[in-house]
Write a structure and sequence with these properties.
290 residues; alpha+beta; Ribonuclease Rh, Chain A; 9-stranded mixed sheet; 9 helices; elongated; disordered N terminus
């Protein structure tokens, strides 16, 4: 019986050790992934989720903040680093107006501060070990400053890329940002609707712990992408999940595809009926011949 008791105690010890290790989180990180997104695309995705959803979009139709994410090389974390540091709206009341403009909660039928609270809990609490980003005010205020200094909308417009419903290549978008900022970004898209259009969604920039722009490095971020979405250049690669076969659409307002979709469905139905008619005629002919 003694050996069984010893065995049981060893099992419990190693199980407890494994459990403790699993709950220990490495909150260290190497760089910041600063993400701006295009509110029209965000809105289209949000409205696709439910017909009851509505959107808040800045009258200036500018790119806004999605998040500022401390990131460890080779991972998409850390996340939720300090559950004891709760979100407190009073800490950022002095910049609430700028947050509404530059860090807009596009999802209109959700509480105004819910987006900020979510980003703070998931990512902001992981930035506390860097003094310039410590605390809610510093964390959110730095993102506002970056948005003003690195306006994606202005950069794209300066290179002839406008939100007018035109399609652009991934090369055009990458080159516009790289030539202006001198660093490689990450370009993200959303696939929308039955037409399967590739919509420009996010531009991600990388910053080191000195809060200086750096290249978003393929070696650091390869885990984010399948090889098929790494666009090879002579002097490197473009980090993107956008389609390389279709133009990337950049809309300035919410497009309506209902008629197009109905027409496509009608055409498909008509083609199906035509095929059925041909099959029926062929079978009828076989019966007649026999």
């Amino acid at each position: 019986m003694r050996w069984q008791f010893v065995y049981l105690m060893l099992v419990l010890f190693f199980h407890a050790r494994h459990t403790i290790t699993a709950f220990q989180q490495d909150d260290s990180w190497d760089y910041i992934l600063f993400v701006q997104h295009w509110p029209i695309t965000v809105c289209m995705k949000w409205m696709d989720n439910s017909s009851n959803n509505s959107c808040t979009i800045s009258p200036n139709y500018q790119w806004t903040v999605h998040g500022s994410w401390p990131t460890k090389i080779g991972t998409d974390g850390p996340q939720y680093c300090n559950s004891s540091w709760h979100f407190n709206m009073t800490e950022i009341e002095s910049i609430e107006g700028e947050l509404e403009q530059y860090w807009t909660n596009v999802e209109a039928n959700t509480p105004l501060s819910s987006f900020w609270e979510y980003e703070w809990r998931k990512h902001g609490t992981c930035a506390l070990n860097l003094e310039p980003l410590e605390g809610e005010f510093n964390y959110f205020n730095q993102a506002i400053a970056w948005t003003k200094n690195f306006s994606i909308g202005d950069i794209l417009s300066a290179h002839g890329i406008h939100p007018d419903g035109s399609g652009y290549s991934i090369q055009q978008i990458h080159d516009a940002i790289q030539s202006t900022l001198g660093v490689n970004p990450v370009i993200e898209c959303e696939v929308h609707g039955k037409p399967k259009m590739s919509l420009l969604s996010e531009i991600r920039l990388c910053f080191n712990k000195s809060l200086n722009l750096i290249d978003c490095d393929i070696d650091k971020m390869h885990y984010l992408f399948l090889d098929e979405y790494l666009y090879d250049l002579e002097d490197g690669q473009i980090l993107t999940d956008c389609s390389l076969k279709r133009p990337i659409m950049y809309f300035g307002q919410i497009p309506h595809f209902e008629n197009t979709i109905k027409d496509e469905e009608l055409e498909e139905r008509q083609q199906f009926l035509t095929q059925l008619r041909k099959i029926y005629q062929f079978l009828h002919l076989l019966i007649w011949l026999t």
